């Protein structure tokens, strides 16, 4: 049986009906050739054990939408006893002694973990090219990048190597690779999903989320991972109220700052047409501080990165260069040798923006801009229910095309970083294709209104299919 084209919903039904077992599914996905290098590691032994356990639970009459369902996990989310590299030499052999809260929840739901997926080193990047383990290929065109940083998760879902995957999103890392690979990605509201057990990049922006084949599956996984967690003080009490939005009553805001001439023209036209096809009430809105978003984002993230990366000194765990003569030399060797170029670039940038004399001019200013950007959205949401924008200004680019020009790479994040700065939830989903390359669209909602986004997206999905 070809399980690779099936959704969680379909697999779950088959498991409940006894059409196949979780062990069948798990074997199938584990043995499927990973021809896009989506995985850093596959977890054969533990996955088979988890599948057997799930089959037992099903046999004893237990039911659950995720019971026995195989999933992949971005390799910056900890699973107890399983290597978690963050795609860095610095953590090449690191084995965490605990489960991330999302993993704990999914284990209880009966999920089988197939493997750990590739990412940009410590989630810093937009192409998965900064991974210590090499680049992942885009299943739609293997000469192109899958996006990033959750490129492995998006490519694994798009090429049928798993039915769903976890990712993390600090400035677009779930939404952009989902758009590049033609799948669905949800970046939940900041605080809705616990970050405990996620290797921190920029803690005030990081959020764990889901990449799946369709909106319904994305919702199923999201519903089993959200909620307050004592281990993450920024996590919030959350209640997901299922709603069925009436499309004819929806008011959609289209921010004029997100349809700029600099973006790919074919992409712009496809998105404009896709919005027209929805036949919904659309109004133009303005988010005037958008032009400052990238600068603020890269200052805030680099500042937080420089602080979060401080613990990787090679003394306690991870990569260690034993040839060091003394402590200072060991810092140079371990941090200089353990991190790749992009991580080092951000540590240096962030150390500068936090240093005495510059902190007020850069970091403090960026925080003020962040506040204004959030306010832009809150003002806009006074008159609209949802906001629709592109996910990326460009189609997936060729491997190697932009990696040597960090600034050009950073500019690609323009439509996604604002959402993280404002802490909002947003879903990325495919709306069309040009020359076989997917076009992604972003649906943004108010804080903690994932239910509204998902309900609308399910209806839009039928139109765009
Ligand atoms: N591309 C963005 C960056 O490099 C986003 C990364 C992310 O969301 N983890 O910062």
Notable traits:
15 helices, alpha/beta, Amidase signature (AS) enzymes, eleven-stranded mixed beta sheet, binds glutamine
Secondary structure: elements and pairs:
Elements: H1 8-17, H2 22-31, E1 39-42, H3 44-59, E2 70-74, H4 101-109, E3 112-117, H5 151-158, E4 164-169, H6 175-181, E5 184-187, E6 207-212, H7 215-225, E7 251-255, H8 265-278, E8 281-285, H9 293-308, H10 327-338, H11 341-354, H12 360-380, E9 386-390, H13 406-411, H14 417-422, E10 426-434, E11 437-444, H15 450-464
Parallel strand pairs: 2-3, 2-4, 7-8, 7-9
Antiparallel strand pairs: 1-3, 4-6, 5-6, 5-10, 9-11, 10-11
Bound molecules: glutamine.
Summarize the structure.
The protein is α/β, with parallel strands linked by helices and 465 residues long.
Can you walk through the features of this model?
It is built from 15 helices and eleven strands. The chain starts with 7 loop residues before the first helix and ends with a helix. An eleven-stranded mixed beta sheet has the order 1-3-2-4-6-5-10-11-9-7-8, sandwiched between helices. It is of the alpha/beta class. The mean pLDDT is 97. It is 38% helix and 14% strand. The protein has a domain at 3-225: Amidase signature (AS) domain (Amidase signature (AS) enzymes, Alpha-Beta Complex), CATH 3.90.1300. It binds glutamine. Glutamine binds next to loops.
């Amino acid at each position: 049986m070809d399980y690779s084209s099936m959704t969680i919903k379909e697999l779950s039904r088959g498991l409940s009906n006894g059409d196949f077992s979780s062990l069948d599914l798990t074997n199938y996905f584990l043995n499927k050739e990973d021809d896009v290098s989506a995985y850093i590691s596959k977890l054969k032994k533990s996955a088979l054990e988890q599948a057997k356990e799930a089959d037992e639970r099903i046999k004893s009459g237990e039911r659950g939408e995720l019971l026995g369902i195989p999933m992949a996990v971005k390799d910056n989310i900890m699973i107890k006893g399983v290597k978690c590299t963050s795609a860095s030499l610095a953590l090449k052999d690191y084995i965490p002694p605990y489960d991330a809260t999302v993993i704990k929840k999914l284990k209880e739901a009966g999920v089988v973990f197939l493997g750990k997926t590739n990412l940009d080193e410590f989630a810093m990047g937009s192409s998965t090219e900064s991974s210590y383990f090499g680049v992942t290929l885009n299943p739609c065109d293997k000469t192109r990048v899958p996006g990033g940083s959750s490129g492995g998760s998006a490519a694994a879902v798009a090429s049928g190597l798993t039915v769903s995957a976890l990712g993390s999103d600090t400035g677009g890392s779930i939404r952009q690779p989902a758009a590049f690979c033609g799948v669905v990605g949800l970046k939940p509201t900041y605080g809705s999903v616990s970050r405990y057990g996620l290797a921190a990049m920029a803690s005030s922006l990081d959020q764990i989320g889901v990449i799946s084949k369709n909106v319904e599956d994305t919702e199923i996984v999201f519903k089993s991972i959200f909620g307050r967690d004592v281990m993450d003080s920024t996590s919030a009490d959350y209640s997901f109220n299922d709603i069925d939005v009436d499309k004819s009553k929806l008011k959609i805001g289209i921010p004029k700052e997100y349809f700029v001439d600099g973006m790919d023209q074919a992409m712009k036209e496809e998105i404009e047409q896709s919005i027209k096809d929805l036949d919904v009430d659309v109004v133009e809105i303005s988010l005037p501080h958008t032009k400052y978003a990238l600068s603020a984002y890269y200052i805030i993230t680099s500042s937080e990165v420089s602080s979060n990366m401080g613990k990787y000194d090679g003394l306690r765990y991870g990569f260690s260069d034993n040839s060091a003569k003394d402590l200072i030399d060991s810092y140079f060797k371990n941090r200089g040798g353990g991190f790749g170029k992009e991580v080092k670039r951000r540590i240096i940038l962030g150390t500068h923006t936090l240093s005495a004399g510059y902190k007020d001019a850069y970091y403090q200013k960026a925080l003020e801009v962040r506040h204004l950007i959030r306010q832009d959205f809150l003002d806009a949401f006074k008159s609209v229910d949802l906001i629709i924008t592109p996910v990326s200004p460009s189609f997936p680019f060729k491997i190697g095309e932009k990696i040597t020009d960090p600034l050009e790479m950073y500019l690609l994040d323009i439509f996604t970083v604002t959402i993280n700065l404002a802490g909002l939830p947003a879903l990325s989903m495919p709306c069309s294709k040009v020359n076989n390359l997917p076009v992604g669209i972003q649906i943004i909602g108010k804080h903690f209104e994932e239910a509204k986004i998902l309900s609308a997206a399910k209806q839009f999905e039928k139109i765009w299919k």
